Amino acid sequence: MLSDAQLRAQLPHTLRQLDLPALGSLYRGKVRDNYSRGDQIVMVTSDRISAFDHVLGTIPFKGEVLSRLTTFWFDKVKDLAPTHLVSVPDPSVMVVKRATPLPVEIVIRGYITGSLWRDYLAGKAGAYGIDWPLGLKKDQKLDRPVITPSTKAAYGKHDEPISEAELLRQGLASPETWKEACALAQRLFARGQEWASSRGLILVDTKYEMGIADGKLVVIDEIHTPDSSRYWMAKAYVQRFMAGQDQQMLDKENIRQWLIKEHGFSGHGTPPALTDDVRVMLAHKYIEVFEQLTGEVFQSAGGDVQARIEQNLRKAGLLK
Ligand SMILES: Nc1ncnc2c1ncn2[C@@H]1O[C@H](COP(=O)(O)OP(=O)(O)OP(=O)(O)O)[C@@H](O)[C@H]1O
Ligand SMILES: [Mg+2]
Questions:
Q1: CA neighbor of 279 nearest in space, from 5, 7, 31
Q2: From atom 1 of ligand 1, which residue's Cα is the shortest distance away?
Q3: Contact (Cβ atoms closer than 8 angstroms) between residue 252 and residue 227
Q4: What does the alpha-carbon distance between residue 89 and residue 81 come to, in Å, rounded to a whole number?
């Protein structure tokens, strides 16, 4: 684990954005800067952090942690499905094959928590077209993992729950593709839960994006990262669940809680500025989940991330 001092020293060097028009045409998402040319995308994971669909600032080493975790996981699931990964020229960069993304996010949950729990309490969880059992408790394990799809909203809009029947009616995916995507999500999630469990963690829920490339379904975007997933500490789960306490979270829920509890911010208005202390605290969390999942000690040279990326892209022949 990098020391507090090392994380602090990285604060002024975090990667906010990468402006390299020579790489192709830019699509800047909330977290990634995506440069496409032909059927290839150079996906640069910046250090930006977003919550409630707002970009809040940057976290030391976050881009590297997320990108390395995604390639780690792609390797763990490579026998289950093709992924978009082509090469990894830099720890924060993936070269991927462009796919036509399905316009739905495939969210899969092993436990009832977060927005699903809030919807369940408010009697709105039926929006997913699922008959939820009565009497579930917060953070309870579901009998089997359940897919709760959501629409992929345009920039600045929030994703919305959608039922399978509705997404098929709207033609967001063909019935065959949707069936295949759900079966694949179940296999990926089972593999993820199994690995996480062997590392003392619970993979609570996650979100997959899939697309079609060369007529085939492929896994795109990131997988099983703390931005796209919830992780809880396994050891504490039962006792905390029985006591009605919050779980020990190793994921983006930490920032959501900070925003809600300290600043009453849950997506409306202007988000509060992140203090350096919070940025360092969050860096610790991201690195902790990396180390716990991979069993490796996170090491990084630190310093100017942009300069390192440019150098590595040049070495890989992606930049002149
Ligand atoms: N292989 C791929 N082909 C095409 N698009 C992809 C591929 N992999 C990921 N994407 C898209 O690239 C973008 C990645 O950037 P990022 O994750 O920062 O965006 P986001 O903020 O999550 O999403 P958005 O801003 O589009 O709502 C996402 O829109 C994702 O759907
Ligand atoms: Mg994304």
A1: 7
A2: 98
A3: yes
A4: 22
Residue 75 lies in a domain: no
Q: Is 98 in the pocket of ligand 1 (CB under 6 A)?
A: yes
> Treating both helix axes as pointing N-terminal to C-terminal, what angle do 62-76 and 276-294 enclose, rounded to 10 degrees?
20
The verdict on residue 218 lying in a domain is: yes
pLDDT for res 155: 58
Nearest CA to ligand 1 atom 8: 221
3-state secondary structure at position 119: helix
pLDDT one-digit tens code per residue, 188-228: 999 999 999 999 999 999 999 999 999 999 999 999 999 99
Of 16, 34, 97, 228, the residue with max ligand 1 atoms within 8 A of its CB, to mutate for a pocket test, comes to 34
Q: How far apart are CA 279 and CA 57, in angstroms?
A: 8
- For residue 237, being part of any structural domain is answered with yes
Single pTM value for the model: 0.95
CATH of residue 200's domain is: 3.30.470.20
**If you count them, how many residues does the chain have?**
320
Contact 247, 140 (CB under 8 A): no
What is the Å distance from ligand 1's center to 221 Cα?
Answer: 6
